[in-house]
Design goal:
The protein has 424 residues and is α/β, with parallel strands linked by helices. It is built from 19 helices and 14 strands. The chain folds into 2 domains: 20-204 and 404-421, Rossmann fold, CATH 3.40.50; 220-401, 3-Layer(aba) Sandwich (Rossmann fold). Helix 4 (57-73) runs parallel beside helix 5 (86-95) and helix 6 packs across helix 7. It is globular and about 65 Å long. It starts with a helix and ends with a helix.
C-alpha cells in the first residue's frame, strides 16, 4: 500500500498541472484529500450510511433509480453519493434530495480513503460500472464493509490494460463481495481478473432503466419550422465533424429543409468547432445564444451547454452517434432510443459493444461499416418515411425489452446483504 501511495503521489504531482490548465481543479480537490467539512461529518454521524460512488454524469444517471428504490424500501438508511467530475457533482446536486449527502470522492491515497471511511462508516459500499481503485477497495474490505459493483462493464481497452498488471489487480478484485455485470462477456472478464464465480452475476444494463427527465424543447424553441427535418450528430469527435458537414451540404441539395445540430463530446472543443463550420461555408450558432440569433438555411446549431443534449434528442428526426466512425469506442445509443429515434452509428462501438449488438440484432439501429456509408444511411432515413417510422418503433422496442436491470441488481443486493441494507 505504501508503494502504491508513492506511485499515485507521483502521478498526481504530474497530473495536477494538467488539471489546472484544463480548468478541472476546484474546491472539491481538497475534500478529495480527506478534508471533509465538519458540518458534513456531523450529518454523516446522525444515521447509518450506504455509500454509492458514481464517477460522472452517466454513472450518476444510472444510480438515481437504484437510490430511489433503496430509500423507498429502507428509509432508515442515509445515502452518501460520491462523484469525481464537476458535471457529475452538479447533476447529482440537482437530482438528490436534501436528505442525501453529496461529496467529491476521495483520491486513492490511503490517508484520504481512511478519513472518508472513518467519517462515513458505511454499512455498504456500491460503485457504479467498474472503478477498480486499489486503496479504496482494500481499505473498505479491511474495515469489514461489503463492496459491490453495479452495472459493471470492462471494455476491451481496459481489459487489456488490467491483464498487463494482473499480479497487482487480482488481489484488489478479490476484495469485492459482489459484481453485478452488464453481460456475460463482462462477467467472464472480471472472473479472469480474479473474482470468484460465486461473487459474479449478470444483471443487464441499468441504463435501460434510467429516468430521462427532458426539457420540453420543440422545433420552435430552436428557431426551426415544424416542416424542417433535423439531423442531430451527438458526442462527435475530431475528424467526424468535417465528414458530417460535407454530407450535410450534399443532402441539402435534395432536402432543402434539412437542419443540422452538432454536439461535440467535449465542450472545450466548441470554439474550434465554430471555426470548422465557418470554413465549410456554413453559419455556426451556439445553443447558449440561440435567443439572439437569426436563422438561415445554412445555420448549424452547436450545443455548447452541459445536460441539454439528452433533451434535444427529442426533436431530432435522425440521430448519429459520434465517437464511432474513426476508432474511438463509440457512445451510448440508449438516450435517443428512449425517444424512439432512428439511430445510426459507425463500426467502432467497442466501449458499448453489448448495447450496440442489442440494437443491431433487433434492427433498432443502423451500424455502418465506415464513413462512406453515412451518406446513404442518412439519405434512406430522410427519404423513406415508412422505413424511418419502423426504425423508430424498433429503437424504442429495444428499450422496452431490456428494462429491469435495476430491479435484478436490487434483488441480488438484498439477498446477499440483508443486514447491511436493513436498519437495526
Amino acid at each position: 500500500m505504501f508503494f502504491y501511495d508513492v506511485l499515485f503521489s507521483c502521478f498526481t504531482l504530474f497530473y495536477l498541472p494538467i488539471l489546472v490548465f484544463k480548468g478541472k481543479a476546484h474546491w472539491g480537490f481538497f475534500c478529495r484529500l480527506g478534508k471533509i467539512p465538519d458540518a458534513v461529518k456531523k450529518r454523516l454521524r446522525e444515521r447509518e450510511n450506504i455509500w454509492i460512488h458514481a464517477v460522472s454524469v452517466g454513472e450518476v444517471m444510472l444510480v438515481l433509480e437504484l437510490i430511489r428504490e433503496l430509500k423507498s424500501r429502507y428509509p432508515g438508511r442515509q445515502i452518501v453519493l460520491t462523484t469525481v467530475t464537476k458535471t457529475g457533482f452538479k447533476l447529482a446536486g440537482n437530482r438528490l434530495s436534501d436528505e442525501d449527502v453529496l461529496l467529491y470522492a476521495p483520491l486513492d491515497f490511503s490517508f484520504s480513503v481512511k478519513e472518508y471511511i472513518r467519517a462515513i462508516q458505511p454499512k455498504l459500499y456500491i460503485v457504479a460500472e467498474t472503478e477498480i481503485w486499489p486503496n479504496m477497495l482494500t481499505l473498505i474490505r479491511q474495515a469489514g464493509v461489503p463492496s459491490l459493483i453495479v452495472n459493471g462493464r470492462i471494455s476491451d481497452k481496459a481489459f487489456r490494460r488490467y491483464l498487463r498488471v494482473l499480479f497487482l489487480i487480482r488481489p484488489v478484485v478479490r476484495t469485492l463481495s459482489l459484481a453485478c455485470m452488464q453481460s456475460r462477456i463482462d462477467a467472464e472478464r472480471i472472473k479472469q481478473l480474479g473474482l470468484n464465480d460465486r461473487n459474479v452475476c449478470v444483471t443487464g444494463n441499468m441504463k435501460f432503466d434510467a429516468i430521462f427527465e427532458s426539457k420540453d424543447y420543440g422545433k420552435e424553441a430552436l428557431h426551426f419550422y415544424e416542416k424542417e427535418q433535423i439531423w442531430l450528430a451527438g458526442s462527435t469527435h475530431p475528424g467526424e465533424e468535417e465528414m458530417i458537414l460535407n454530407i450535410f451540404k450534399r443532402l441539402k441539395w435534395e432536402f432543402p429543409d434539412l437542419r443540422l445540430i452538432l454536439a461535440p463530446r467535449h465542450i472545450t472543443r466548441v470554439g474550434h468547432l465554430v471555426e470548422i463550420v465557418r470554413e465549410s461555408g456554413l453559419d455556426p450558432v451556439l445553443f447558449s445564444r440561440i435567443a439572439e440569433s437569426s436563422f438561415l438555411p445554412t445555420v448549424v446549431l452547436i450545443i455548447d451547454t452541459i445536460g441539454d443534449l439528452r433533451s434535444l434528442y427529442k426533436v431530432a428526426d435522425v440521430v448519429f452517434i459520434g465517437k464511432s466512425l474513426l476508432g474511438h469506442g463509440g457512445q451510448n445509443p440508449i438516450e435517443p432510443a428512449f425517444f424512439g429515434k432512428p439511430i445510426i452509428f459507425g463500426p467502432h462501438m467497442e466501449n458499448f459493444r453489448h448495447i450496440a449488438r442489442l440494437f443491431t440484432e433487433d434492427q433498432g439501429a443502423i451500424q455502418i461499416e465506415g464513413p462512406r456509408d453515412l451518406f446513404p444511411a442518412i439519405h434512406k432515413i430522410l427519404k423513406d418515411n415508412k422505413f424511418r417510422q419502423e426504425l423508430s418503433r424498433r429503437s424504442l422496442g429495444v428499450i422496452e425489452r431490456h428494462k429491469g436491470a435495476t430491479t435484478r441488481t436490487l434483488t441480488h443486493l438484498i439477498q446477499r446483504f440483508p443486514s447491511e441494507v436493513t436498519p437495526d
